[in-house]
Amino acid sequence: MYLFYVDESGTPDPISINKKGGCSNNFIIGGILIKTDFSQKLEEEFYEIKEKYLKNPLLELKYNSPPSNIKKGYNKEIVREKVYDFINNSSQNFKIITAVIDKTNLGEKNYFSKNKESIYYYALQFLLERINYELSALKDSCLVILDSRNKKDNKTLYSSYMYLLKHGTNQQNADKFNHFLPSIAFSDSEFCMNLCVADFCCASVFQLEEFSRPRYYKTIKNKFRNINGVIEGYGIVHFP
């Protein structure tokens, strides 16, 4: 069985005419697809990173973790570099798959409502549609594990997931999604280290798409799903 750990980067809030500060142009949702055989080992290795660089290894280590959590002698940039090197060099077999939602162009799709819930709802379906192509080739089942947000957002994502299983999408019929288990799991990235790995992966794509900063993406580029070396459309997909 496979596990797909899902996190996000950027904001899902729609862009208004008077753009609010902190509202990104792009919303990234994605993560790592990994077989259960490798999942535990990856978490154990990531915990060693936390032991080395955090004052307390029980603290959460994500892309935007506060500098106050980092041991003396290191800083945020050093730790980020070490984590991305860790992802790149990991011997555990996993693939990064992400979806980029360009919120500046969502007006072209009339089924999108201009609210956060709609962006969340369709972003997850768009991502899982792509994951399903990979699962179809692997011929194995998958449990989707999402970083828990709040009750309202979790309910939106759960509703999106269940609709996908029952009705499918414009691209794939419902019977094609039988690789996914009939429920999803919400976890807290403070206690689930593979969600933290997913966070760093999404952040690398966000930096690339939002700010044209490919530094971290280039470090882990070889971990993205690809077909004959082509990542666009396979490991990173854009919508619309």
Describe it:
The structure is a single chain. Helices cover 40% and strands 17% of the residues. The protein has helices spanning 36-53, 76-89, 116-138, 151-167, 193-211, 215-220, and strands spanning 2-10, 26-35, 94-102, 142-147, 185-187, 236-239. The protein has a six-stranded mixed beta sheet with strand order 5-4-1-2-3-6. Helix 3 crosses helix 4. The longest helix is centred in the middle third of the chain and has 23 residues, at 116-138. The two termini are 31 Å apart.
Keywords:
6-stranded mixed sheet; globular; 240 residues; alpha/beta; single chain
- Measured distance between first and last alpha carbons: 31 Å
Instruction: Output the strand order for the largest sheet.
Output: 5-4-1-2-3-6
Mean pLDDT: 92
Radius of gyration, CA atoms, in whole angstroms: 17 Å
Q: What general outline do the C-alpha atoms trace?
A: globular
**Strand segment count:** 6
The fraction of residues assigned to DSSP E strands is 15-25%
Estimate percent helicity: 40-55%
| H/I helix tally | 6
Structural class: alpha/beta
Which H/E pattern describes the elements? Answer: EEHHEHEHEHHE
Largest sheet: 6 strands, mixed
The unreliable regions are none
